[in-house]
From TrEMBL:
UniProt motif ('KMSKS' region) ranges: 273-277
UniProt-recorded name of the protein: Glutamyl-Q tRNA(Asp) synthetase
Organism: Aquariibacter albus
InterPro entries: Glu-Q_tRNA(Asp)_Synthase, Glu/Gln-tRNA-synth, Glu/Gln-tRNA-synth_Ib_cat-dom, GluQ/Sye, Rossmann-like_a/b/a_fold
PANTHER family with a match to the protein in the record: GLUTAMATE--TRNA LIGASE (PTHR43311), GLUTAMYL-Q TRNA(ASP) SYNTHETASE (PTHR43311:SF1)
Length: 332
């Protein structure tokens, strides 16, 4: 059976509730919904609220209201990362037991200094890899690093998930994934085609749990996608460079790898992608005209073969036509 046949397809949209949906996030939401509907699959909604300090009250409710107004309704009740700490802790425990995760007590200043010494001055929009200051063993810096403390995974009380802990008197630690010796990863995106990344050169051993105790995006997403049976991921192109990290993490945990499709980005007048961090305005969905305008704009970014200009039918009619157009597009 094809990975794109209906009964085996489970897709998802996973917004972070740091603010309302904007034109850029709607493109990803619409594409993931269309892909699930076009292949007779299930569409899920996951609220990625793992970074709780950045999630203001009311943001999740507003996103749910916007999706409902647009006619993009999940097939099962939404899930929330803030409720999944136990599953993330179990995954980290498994990685530690397998020797695939290690503690890191580096400060940002220490990492920046080590990067500057090894790679030169930083460049705008260029990620520099973790320099291996705490990585155990002969290829890392921890074996000979003065003052590198010993750490362990410790529980925080009965029934609570394990938390990173250090010996008394040491500062809090993060936990990092130890990459395999060959971290060259090839994968194929349904829209972008064949991709390749040297994960060690791009980011190095990446964080699984932060020093402040919050779970990192890569671990939370990879574990949730497997736990929720996600087979197909449709999301914005800005997340394409995260995909190799998630595939490596899935392999380290023995989890299946979904099929990926990364959608075009919506950019502002300055050429930067629209984002909440850069003040992208929320969608104006006050009436039917606002809903139709938002859907048509997102459909145009996705290249759907639909008539331009005013839509005379309902939003539900437009979505039905959009599903057919998505199904019939080249490379579907």
């Amino acid at each position: 059976m094809s990975r794109l046949s209906g009964v085996g397809y489970v897709g998802r949209f996973a917004p972070s509730p740091t603010g309302p949906l904007h034109a850029g996030s709607l493109v990803a939401a619409l594409a993931s919904w269309l892909d699930a509907r076009a292949h007779g699959g299930q569409w899920r909604l996951r609220i990625e609220d793992v970074d709780t300090p950045r999630c203001p009250p009311g943001a999740e409710a507003e996103i749910l209201r916007q999706l409902d107004a647009l006619g993009l309704r999940p097939d099962v009740p939404p899930s929330r990362q803030s409720q999944h700490g136990a599953r993330y802790a179990a995954a980290l425990q498994a990685l530690v037991a397998a020797g695939r995760a290690y503690p890191c007590d580096c400060t940002r200043a220490q990492i920046a200094a080590a990067q500057a010494a090894r790679f030169g001055p930083p460049q705008r929009h260029v990620e520099r890899p973790y320099p291996g200051r705490c990585r155990p063993g002969p290829d890392g810096g921890a074996a000979g690093k003065a003052g590198c403390p010993s750490h362990r995974l410790a529980g925080t009380g009965a029934g609570s998930p394990p938390a990173p802990a250090a010996d008394p008197g040491t500062r809090p630690v993060a936990w990092r994934l130890r990459l395999p010796d060959d971290a060259q990863l090839a994968w194929t995106d349904r829209r972008l085609g064949p991709q390749r990344q040297d994960v060690a050169a791009v980011c190095g051993d990446f964080v699984l749990r932060r020093a402040d105790g919050l779970w990192a995006y890569q671990l939370a997403v990879g574990v949730d996608d497997a736990a929720e049976g996600i087979t197909h991921i449709v999301r914005g192109e800005d997340l394409a460079d995260n995909t190799p990290r998630q595939i490596l993490l899935q392999a380290a945990l023995g989890l299946p790898t979904p099929v990926y499709l990364h959608t075009p980005l919506v950019r502002g007048p300055d050429g930067e992608k629209l984002s909440k961090q850069h003040g992208a305005p929320g969608l104006a969905l006050r009436d039917a005209a606002g809903v139709m305008g938002a859907l048509q704009d997102a459909g145009a970014v996705l290249g759907l073969a639909l008539p331009p200009g005013p839509w005379t039918g309902t939003a539900a009619d437009w979505l039905a036509a959009a599903v057919a157009a998505w199904r019939d597009r080249p490379g579907a």
